[in-house]
Automatic annotation (TrEMBL):
Organism from which the protein derives: Actinoplanes palleronii
UniProt signal peptide: none
One Pfam entry name: Amidohydro_1
Domain of life of the native organism: Bacteria
Transmembrane segments: none
Protein's UniProt name: Xaa-Pro dipeptidase
Residue ranges annotated for the Amidohydrolase-related domain, each copy included: 55-411
Cross-referenced InterPro entries: Amidohydro-rel, Metal-dep_hydrolase_composite, Metal_Hydrolase, Metallo-dep_Hydrolase
SUPFAM superfamilies: Composite domain of metallo-dependent hydrolases (SSF51338), Metallo-dependent hydrolases (SSF51556)
Gene3D superfamilies per UniProt: Metal-dependent hydrolases, Urease, subunit C, domain 1
Length: 420
């Protein structure tokens, strides 16, 4: 089997060490060697990729992905725009069209260097994510390998037609939901443990589930072999999530000292994803879509951005694994711009560029848990990016897909380098 050798560039292996001159060797779907320095000669059968002026790094991993959200770069849908208008849900067309849109979004995300994703929930009651995950795995469509998540479970479900779901609240109902979602084939189940200011004034401080309901969901998830994810902004919702065994806790915007202590106590098993992209976009980039400063304040985005800026330096200090990505798919925050989160972590939340490269690769690999993924190490899956320049010095390089000169997934080029 012919080898692919990336040479003459810097190598960022995901460990946290600064990029340094080196070579990466790939055979089949695995990295077989990572060596320092450059060789002047290679085997005659090697496919040699000249990475001069570039950095060779692992593929990025999106920790809070919404591939069923409608807006992506080049495909903006103003109808799905915070504050959300329920009329959007009236024109969901059905599985074939929604699947086609999710497939489009998956390819766009892979085109932008994300080779794996962990879903943060679907907006659809249809099994679009399961079908998409399996089609990508089979090689039928291009996209990041993914962990599929259920529709987001609110605890006050009122559909646009006025129908109220009976027997929805209570521990038994939560157990039943998790069991049913696991039986359908989802990898994780999403709960809206807190509400949100976008939907209800003061909603971010409303905890929608009791401790008993969340504990029942956690017990059923372990029994059914699925993970739990949650939207949690209020301090109480974060505490309930930790105590109930949720794996990925989104936002944590208003966590208090007790919530931070709890998160730190489970930092080896739990991940947090603040999703600064959408909040920053609402505060600073929403006017084209009707999100003025006044609207952003009413939606809670101004307070949320300030809350993140207070909380996440402490999360960083405590060693809690915080990952970039989240809530891309709105018109002012479309899918394809996801790498912008890395820079926002630096500018707003106090992280360093190297920390964010590790978070987007190594820590993301730990989240999706597909085995040896997220680093360039012998025996690990060969997801490889060749990036023009050095992203450890300028993370913004990752925001322009034209700077991604090569994208390899499972040892196969999704985007092959152009020969000189």
């Amino acid at each position: 089997m012919a080898r692919t050798v990336f040479t003459n560039g810097l190598v960022f292996d995901g460990s946290g060490s600064a990029p340094a001159p080196g070579e990466v060797v790939v055979e089949g779907d695995r990295v077989t060697e990572v060596r320092s320095g450059w060789r002047s000669e290679h085997e005659s059968t090697d496919q040699v990729i000249d990475a001069t002026g570039c950095t060779v790094m692992p593929g990025m991993i999106e920790s809070h992905c919404h591939l069923t959200f409608p807006s992506a770069v080049g495909h903006i849908d103003p109808s799905f725009n915070p504050p959300l208008d329920v009329s959007f849900f009236h024109h969901i067309e059905g599985l074939p069209s929604e699947l086609a849109r999710a497939e489009r979004n998956a390819k766009i995300l892979l085109d932008h260097g994300f080779t794996s994703v962990y879903s943060a929930g679907s907006i659809l009651p249809m099994p679009v994510e399961i079908i998409l995950r399996d089609k990508i795995k089979a090689g039928a469509v291009p996209g990041p390998r993914m962990r599929a998540a259920s529709m987001e479970r609110d605890n006050h479900p009122v559909r646009p037609d006025g129908h109220v779901e009976p027997d929805w609240q209570g521990p038994d109902a939560c157990r039943r939901w998790v069991r049913d979602m696991a039986a359908q084939g989802y990898d994780s189940v999403k709960f809206l443990l807190s509400n949100d200011d976008v939907f209800v004034p003061g909603g971010s401080q409303i905890t929608q589930y009791t401790a008993e309901e969340a504990l029942a969901a956690g017990e059923q998830a372990r029994e059914s072999g699925v993970w739990l994810n949650c939207h949690a902004q209020s301090a109480e919702s974060v505490k309930i999530a930790v105590r109930s065994g949720f794996r990925s806790i989104y936002h944590c915007t208003y966590a208090d000292e007790e919530a931070l202590d709890l998160l730190e106590s489970v930092k080896d098993t739990v991940f947090v994803s603040p999703a600064p992209g959408i909040i920053y976009a609402n505060v600073h980039e929403g006017e084209e879509f009707g999100i003025t400063r006044e609207v952003a304040e009413k939606m809670g985005s101004v307070d949320a951005l300030e809350g993140m800026a207070r909380i996440y330096p402490e999360i960083r200090k405590r060693g809690i694994r915080a990952l970039p990505g989240g809530d891309y798919g709105f018109p002012n925050n479309p899918i394809g711009r996801n790498a912008r989160d890395l820079q926002l972590f630096v500018d707003v939340l106090g992280y360093t560029p190297l920390e964010m490269l590790v978070a987007a690769t190594k820590l993301g690999g730990e989240l999706v848990d597909f085995g040896d993924l997220g680093m360039l190490r012998p025996g690990w899956l060969a997801d490889v990016l060749v990036v023009r320049g050095n992203p450890a010095e300028d993370l913004r390089l990752l925001q322009d897909k034209d700077n991604l000169l090569a994208i390899m997934q499972n040892g196969t080029f999704h985007k092959a380098p152009v020969a000189a």
